[in-house]
Amino acid sequence: MTEIERHTYDVIVIGAGGAGLRAAIEARSRGLRTAVICKSLFGKAHTVMAEGGIAASMGNVNSKDNWQVHFRDTMRGGKFLNHWRMAELHAKEAPERVWELEAWGALFDRTADGRISQRNFGGHEYPRLAHVGDRTGLELIRTLQQRIVALQQQDQRDLGDYEARLKVFAECTITEILRDPDDADGNPGAVSGAFGYWRESGRFVLFQAPAVIIATGGIGKSFKVTSNSWEYTGDGHALALRTGSTLVNMEFVQFHPTGMVWPPSVKGILVTESVRGDGGVLTNSEGKRFMFGYVPDVFRKQYAETEEEGDRWYKDADNNRRPPELLPRDEVARSINSEVKAGRGSPHGGVFLDVSSRLPAEEIRRRLPSMYHQFKELADVDITAEPMEVGPTCHYVMGGVEVDPDTAAAARVPGLFAAGESAGGMHGSNRLGGNSLSDLLVFGRRAGLGAADYVAALGEHRPTVSESDVEAAAAAAVAPFRTEGGENPYTLHTELQQVMNDLVGIIRTEAEMQAALDKLAELKTRSRTLTVEGHRQFNPGWHLALDLQNMLLVSECIARAALERQESRGGHTRDDYPAMSPIWRQVNLICSVDGDSVRVEHQPLPSMPVELLGLFDRSELGKYLTEAELSGLPEENN
Amino acid sequence: MGYDAKFRVWRGDSATGELHDFTVAVNEGEVVLDVIHRLQATQTPDLAVRWNCKAGKCGSCSAEINGRPRLLCMTRMSTFTEAETITVTPLRTFPVIRDLVTDVSFNYAKAREVPSFAPPADLKPGDFRMKQVDVERSQEFRKCIECFLCQNTCHVVRDHEENKQAFAGPRFFIRLAELDMHPLDTLDRKDQAQEEHGLGLCNITKCCTEVCPEHIKITDNAIIPMKERVADVKYDPVRWLGAKIRRRSQSD
User: Fold this and answer.
1) Cβ-count burial of A635 within 10 angstroms (0-12 exposed, 13-18 middle, 19+ buried)?
2) Which of B29, B41, B99 lies closest to A490 in CB terms?
3) Mean per-residue pLDDT for A233-241?
4) pLDDT at position A484
5) A256 is catalytic
6) A263 CA to chain B: closest CA distance, Å?
7) Which residues in A lie closer than 8 A to residue B46 (C-beta atoms)?
8) What is the mean pLDDT of residues A89-115?
9) Which residues contact B135 (CB under 8 A, 6 or more apart)?
10) Strand order of the sheet with strand A388-397?
11) Who wins on pLDDT, A140 or A483?
12) B55 chain-A contacts, CB cut-off 8 A
């Protein structure tokens, strides 16, 4: 066979967003030779788009905040389906992860006494989000990028080579993770490396490594209206499945309530939640602040009942309740959907988000510079003078690779790890704003550590790559060039996005899920005969043809899990099962691949230890837990 | 609303290439990147272009539109007349890989040459205290999305390959200025800028500021203050002597 470029590392990290870079920093700092592989240029990952901030209970603005309150908010936001251990580690470790960014050069906005400022956000009881205006993601990615450069400079000094122990392979796509064959008992063999191609040249490249960390982000490009970039094609989710690991919670997809709705070419682009955190209000065509009519029972106690109380909260949060515009994202997205369906929408099919009547123009430009710029340049709207039009946009997938909370080790495959949006469990059925950037840092670091410990335990024994697997991966990658007269990948992608948007969106029914699965099966068949024009050098048509296989597999997981879960919770709303069910709260849905088909199995949700349950009132737990679970609680919860 | 626009797009590779003419549909509210995507989907599936966020936040889709360095995703079609032919070419300062994609590795090499942020050794994470007014100057430079349009337009390197070795370019002058103005950075960035990164080659024509999509005042707020302070140190005999002595004691 043809010569393939080969590299050997201790750890390879797929993805160079917040989780991937943080994982790489940790693995390299533990002395491992580490490679980061990413589809785009270094520093362009989707993390750059995060706007509002990083949630961490530093207590700089309200000293009552602590990890227990953050943990409680996170569990409430996820409607108690979160893996409790992930939510606990996340709440405990987030402050340290933010402070270390500052030591690496990040410049957050400050409080009057010179500490890191923190802002209000949906679902967070206290001001908790460390931020830089509304471009926090850029600050995060640049800081991690510059930390990587700092480590490389160290290696240049010590070893005479910037890339001696940490190298970034940019514009390189991984198409398969390789591993040893199953053993006699049918257990999957350990990871041995990964196979991919250089986007620039189209040439193949093989990475031999005993540990692979998946940090590839989300799946939004399967949906038509999305805030996600082209990279978000569910690569890591699909790679994990094909390697023999499993996905959890795939039915839970977050539709961010506020995406741009006009002009059409920018439909879906994110409008940060900070607009509401800083005072912005949602109104319908009748000028009414409709969110007051949509506060669900489980949140009734924590939200204002009148506009006056909601407005007072911005100045005096201790003695007033927060306005319902700051409910968790799933609630706000469904409410906007209902208003538009009831005919009370804005001219372009959204609702109004107004900050112009709430803050002075100068203050808006200072606090929300990117939003001001974005609307001015892309929609000719001056947000200091008029309301924005906004509507829900596919933003985040709660589901992802099933992992061990402490080590980020992926289920069933030794040597495979996952962190960030591509991992599941942390956010339960719905993620709170600001909990993503902190998730990337906390679990990115833990994945780096987990991989380092795993590699150390292997000692001299390293799994080897099988040449026949490499040949098979190479053959699969060039298959689209061999077919003649097949379909255009762009056409198929457009159809997939339409199906997911129409049938697997915010509101779901059994009939629609069935229809979606039928359509997905048809698209899967058609995807086997895609035709790509041109040659392998930087060919976007070819890249899309390969990414499409991942999108189709992940979309099927979402639709199958959504069909299976007969209740409504967080980012999964079934019109035919509108209530939240305590029985279903005990169930995780696990997706795996069996030959060519996706299998969905029930698995019990790990149960929360009593000391953590003790952080909640029994009356609140009563809204989520079954009678049997409640009767098992100790007295002090009563 | 919609109309057919005339586009000329450069296609080729490192060896050869030329402008190709296309007629392509344009809808209301679209940006140039939308039209490039429509070309990919309907006429030229292998047309190479970089892009990511499509919201002016990642700095991937830099190119030249009618000869002006721009982000494809932030250039609205409504800024052109329907009769106008729109010419899209790759960044001129960097070697072409294919079509609109160029090799921007120059910038990543330069990034490595800037010594990293160096806080006081005894300052622990969590103990940093800085005033908002003191971080704001550096925050302006940290808005940079690394689109490299300033690097592309800077005439010191635009048609002068020979200057690339000695010149870091505007993007890295604002990086140096950012670190210089950081309240807790401990290194001397001015001498670095002058002696190792070619600050002296810049003759402040402000082309970089003009093309910056983040409206960072590169020349006025970063380059000129750095140059002034370099001049202060260099030509004030007392400060010159002080700097010499300080440097000697550091190397001891």
Assistant:
1) exposed
2) B41
3) 98
4) 81
5) yes
6) 5
7) 532-535, 539-542
8) 98
9) A107, A109, A110, B182, B183
10) A253-260, A388-397, A351-354, A281-283
11) A140
12) 49, 266, 269-270, 374, 378
What is the per-residue pLDDT for B246?
59
Is the predicted pLDDT of residue A187 greater than 90, yes or no?
Answer: no
Q: Give residue for tokens 């590795």.
A: B105
Query: Would you say A8 and A455 are in contact if contact means Cβ atoms under 8 Å apart?
Result: no
Question: Which residues from A are below 8 Å from B138, CB to CB?
Answer: 107
Q: Which residue is catalytic, options A256, A445, A569, A585? A: A256
- Answer whether A613's CB lies under 8 Å from A596's CB: no
Compute chain B's Rg from CA coordinates: 22
* Dist CA A403 CA A418 (whole Å): 7
Tell me which chain B residues have a C-beta less than 8 angstroms from the C-beta of A48: 52-53, 57-58, 145
Find chain B residues with C-beta within 8 A of A539's C-beta. Answer: 45-46, 48
C-beta atoms of A229 and B30 within 8 A? no
Residue A260 makes CB contacts below 8 A (sequence gap 6+) with A266, A267, A268, A269, A270, A271, A374, A375, A378, A379, A388, A389, A390, A393
Residues in CB range of A596: below 8 A, 6 or more apart:
none
- Between chains, do A114 and B129 touch, taking CB under 8 Å as contact? yes
Residues linked to residue A270 through DSSP beta bridges, in sequence order: A259
In A19-151 the beta strands, taken as DSSP E runs, fall at 34-38, 54-55, 118-119, 129-130
Kindly provide the ipTM of the predicted complex, given to two decimals: 0.92
- Nearest CB neighbour to B115, from listed A99, A132, A153: A153
Are the C-beta atoms of A401 and A247 separated by less than 8 Å?
A: yes
d(CA A386, CA B60): 31
Q: According to the model, what pLDDT value does residue B252 have?
A: 43
Contact A530, A489 (CB under 8 A): yes
C-alpha separations of A395 from A222, A420, A543, B170 in Å: 11, 14, 23, 35
Query: Is B45 in contact with A149 (Cβ distance < 8 A)?
Result: no
pTM, 2 dp: 0.95
Give the residue on A whose Cα is nearest the Cα of B40.
A541
Q: What is the mean pLDDT of residues A378-395?
A: 95
Active-site option among A119, A135, A179, A276: A276
User: How many whole angstroms separate alpha carbon A215 and alpha carbon A12?
Assistant: 10
On whether the CB atoms of residues A582 and A518 are closer than 8 A, the answer is: no
Does A30 participate in catalysis according to the annotation?
Answer: no
**CB pair distance less than 8 Å for B53 and A115:** no
Distances (CA, A) of B125 to A75, A106, A244, B128: 28, 12, 40, 7
* pLDDT at residue A385 tops 50: yes
Verify whether the Cβ–Cβ distance A110 to B108 is below 8 Å: no
Instruction: Tell me the CA distances in angstroms from A350 to A127, A279, A355, A430, B122, one per residue in order.
Output: 28, 19, 16, 22, 53
Query: Taking CB atoms and an 8 Å limit, are B101 and A542 in contact across chains?
Result: no
Q: Select from B53, B56, B108 the Cβ nearest to the Cβ of A377.
A: B56
Which residues on A lie below 8 Å from B52 (Cβ)? 40, 44-46, 48, 229-231
Do residues B10 and B88 touch, judged by C-beta distance below 8 A? yes
CB hemisphere CA count around A46 (13 angstroms): 28
**Strand partners for A352:** A283, A389
Helix, strand or coil, per DSSP, at residue A131: coil
Which residues of chain B are under the pLDDT cut of 70? 1, 233-252
Predicted pLDDT at B251? 45
Compute the distance between CA of residue B94 and CA of residue A616 in angstroms, rounded to an integer. 59
Mean residue pLDDT across chain A: 95
Q: Is B142's CB within 8 Å of A200's CB?
A: no
Cβ–Cβ pairs < 8 A, chains A and B: 171
- Residue A423 to residues A86, A241, A432, B184, Cα–Cα distance (Å): 11, 12, 16, 36
Note whether B97 contacts A200, CB cutoff 8 Å.
yes
Per-residue b or e along A108-138, where b marks 16 or more CB atoms closer than 10 Å to that residue's CB: bbbbeebbbbbbbbbbbbbbbbbbbbbbbbb
Residue of chain A whose Cα is closest to the Cα of B73: A378
